[in-house]
């Protein structure tokens, strides 16, 4: 087992996490890019700073919701691209402790989620629209990129890197054990050593030797010899990669799909396009069937509360996980070909069949004749009888080999496992 495998063992076991995007942008409620998209001035954005009170923020409630949903780890935005810090950084005044909230919101998050036995991750944006030494003009990820005045503004990018590295050190020194460092994001030439990424990762690992880091500092995590800063897991976003994620030698590497519950990461009051629990569960099964994780995002509102739509989906997800979690936790890809009616996940010699869509008649399990000792419905333990249907022989040559069917409890027409 190499160092990355040792570090990510718990991550591959736990499979399901909660992503939380929360900050000043939750007040305009038009998504976390609102300052960039609307080219807001700092003065305008500071009106949100002056009123941000986190009056209904109770991370114990968030943590209980995550636990009930079966989410085993969480990742909170400690600083997004707008540069606003939810933690009591000594390196800036642009922080929650200087707002009417007057609290270290990260401290409370870490304590509350740890108390529920949930692994703690911190998201940190290397992009910073607020810092005077972060490049603006021409930078595609900056509010004033089209501002001619910004073109001639002298910046000291090394001073920004000292700030950025210093804040990461604060986060990994002052809040106890941190399990995930989730950086966001490299782009164009702003990648890798532009962030002094090797120095940054060495510092991180010197403080938190067991931490896992995403791959968004840059480099190529799939390479034969990835850069030291290439990360411990690949982080596809809003997609589930068709074949999972493998390295250049075809070996599966840790990956996690981060997906929004509606269409926005940060709170967007107009966005009622929430995914159903069924869509979320299918996405989770899809990820695990390809050796991946799902990081499901919620965007709390300006006061610090998760929307009732989010909580409804999380509750339904949790009930499914309560009955079927054995087919997710500690599971991964099966060598069996993907069945036409759904997905397989597997843990050792236990095969879990997730029935997504079924046509008429029984569902077939190809290539398993004589290989199944027993079959049970996962939700209630009901025995399913293994049968070789009369047509099996007749069709075996045209169906890709021998197959069996399961009889017994009427399999629901979706989302069940045996
Ligand atoms: O720009 C961010 C975005 O706001 C959000 O935080 C996502 C989450 O993975 N990451 C970046 C877009 O890739």
Q: Bound small molecules, which ones?
A: ligand FHN
Which range does the strand content fall in?
15-25%
Largest sheet: 7 strands, parallel
Q: What is the terminal-to-terminal distance?
A: 31 Å
Question: What would the principal axes of the Cα set say about the shape?
Answer: elongated
- Radius of gyration over C-alpha positions, nearest whole angstrom: 24 Å
Topology, please?
Blueprint: H1 3-14, E1 16-20, H2 34-37, H3 42-51, H4 59-68, E2 73-79, H5 105-115, E3 119-125, H6 148-151, H7 157-173, E4 180-184, H8 197-207, E5 212-213, E6 255-260, H9 277-289, E7 292-298, H10 308-324, E8 342-347, E9 350-355, E10 364-366, E11 375-376, E12 383-387, H11 391-396, E13 403-408
Parallel strand pairs: 1-2, 1-7, 2-3, 3-4, 4-5, 6-7
Antiparallel strand pairs: 8-9, 10-13, 11-12, 12-13
The protein binds ligand FHN.
């Amino acid at each position: 087992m190499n160092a990355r495998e040792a570090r990510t063992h718990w991550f591959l076991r736990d499979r399901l996490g909660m992503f939380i995007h929360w900050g000043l942008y939750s007040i305009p409620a038009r998504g976390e890019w609102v300052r960039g998209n609307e080219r807001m001035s700092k003065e305008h954005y500071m009106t949100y700073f002056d009123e941000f009170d986190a009056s209904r923020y109770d991370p114990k409630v968030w943590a209980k919701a995550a636990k009930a949903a079966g989410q085993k780890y969480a990742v909170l935005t400690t600083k997004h691209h707008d540069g606003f810090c939810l933690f009591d950084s000594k390196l800036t005044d642009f922080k929650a402790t200087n707002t009417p909230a007057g609290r270290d919101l990260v401290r409370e998050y870490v304590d509350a989620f740890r108390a529920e036995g949930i692994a703690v991750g911190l998201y940190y944006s290397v992009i910073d629209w607020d810092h005077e030494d972060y490049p603006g003009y021409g930078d595609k990820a900056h509010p004033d990129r089209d501002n001619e005045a910004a073109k001639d503004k002298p910046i000291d990018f090394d001073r920004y890197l000292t700030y950025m590295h210093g804040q990461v050190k604060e986060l990994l020194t002052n809040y106890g054990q941190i399990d995930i460092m989730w950086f966001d994001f490299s782009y164009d030439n702003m990648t890798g050593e532009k962030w002094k990424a090797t120095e940054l990762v060495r510092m991180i690992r010197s403080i938190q030797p067991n931490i896992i880091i995403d791959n968004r500092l840059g480099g190529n995590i799939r390479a034969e010899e990835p850069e030291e800063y290439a990360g411990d897991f690949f982080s596809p976003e809003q997609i589930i990669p068709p074949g999972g994620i493998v390295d250049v030698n075809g070996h599966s590497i840790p990956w996690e799909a981060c997906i929004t519950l509606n269409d926005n990461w940060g709170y967007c009051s107009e966005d009622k396009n929430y995914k159903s629990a069924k869509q979320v569960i299918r996405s989770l099964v899809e990820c695990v069937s390809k050796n991946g994780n799902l990081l499901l995002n919620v965007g709390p509102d300006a006061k610090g509360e998760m929307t009732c739509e989010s909580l409804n989906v999380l509750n339904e997800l949790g009930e499914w996980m309560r009955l079927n979690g054995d087919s997710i936790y500690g599971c991964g890809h099966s060598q069996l070909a993907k069945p036409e009616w759904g997905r397989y996940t597997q843990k050792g010699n236990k095969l879990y069949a997730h029935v997504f869509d079924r046509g008429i008649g029984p569902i077939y399990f190809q290539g398993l004749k004589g290989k199944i000792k027993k079959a049970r419905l996962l939700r209630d333990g009901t025995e399913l009888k293994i049968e070789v249907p009369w047509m099996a022989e007749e069709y075996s040559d045209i169906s890709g080999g021998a197959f069996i069917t399961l009889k017994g409890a009427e399999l629901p027409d979706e989302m069940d496992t045996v």
